[in-house]
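Can't paste images in this forum, so I'm doing it all in text. The chain is below; anyone willing to post the predicted C-alpha cells underneath?
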Amino acid sequence: MSIMEQPEESQQEQVVTGKCHWHPDIETGLFCSQCGKYVCTSCMAQASVGIRCRECGKAVRLPTFDVTTIYYARAGGVALGIAIVGGILWAVLNNIFLGIPFLPGLIALGVGYGAGELISLSVNRKRSMGLVWLAGGAVLAAFIVSWLVDPFRINIWWLLFVVIGVSVAVQRVRP
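Text version of the structure:
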C-alpha cells in the first residue's frame, strides 16, 4: 500500500454502544466493569475500579461505622465498669481535692476522656451514635455513683463540668 492509498477516516475504529439497562431510550457507550450492563451517566456509580451499575456500585458501609451487636455488648460492659470504678474513683478524688476550687470538677474531664477512650479501644476505634449514648451515659452514671458513694452539694459548676465531661467522652466515639 502506497502513501496515496491510506484508508479513509470513515473506516476508523467504530465505538460500540448499547442501551442503558434502566433507561432503554438512552444510548450509551458506558458499561459496568463488574457485570457488563450498559449504563447511562445518571445510572453509573464511579468506583475505584471503574464504572459500576446501580446494583454493583451500591455503597458499602465503612468498617469504622459498621458496629455490630457484639461491639455494643463490649462497649456496654466497659461503660458499666467505667460507671462503677470511675464513680468510686471520682468520689475518692473529690474527698482528697475538695478544698481546691474547680479541681474536683476537673475530675469529670478525666472521667469523660477515660470513658470515651476506653469505649473506643474496646470496639477497635469504631464510631456510632449508639456508642455516643453509651459513652455519655457512662460519665453521667459515674457522676451519680460518685454522689451515691459520698453525697456532696451539687451546684451549677458541678453540672457544667459533668456536661463538659460527657462532651469529651462523646467526642471520642462520635461518627
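The longest strand covers residues 45-47. Residues 39 and 105 are 60 Å apart (CA to CA).
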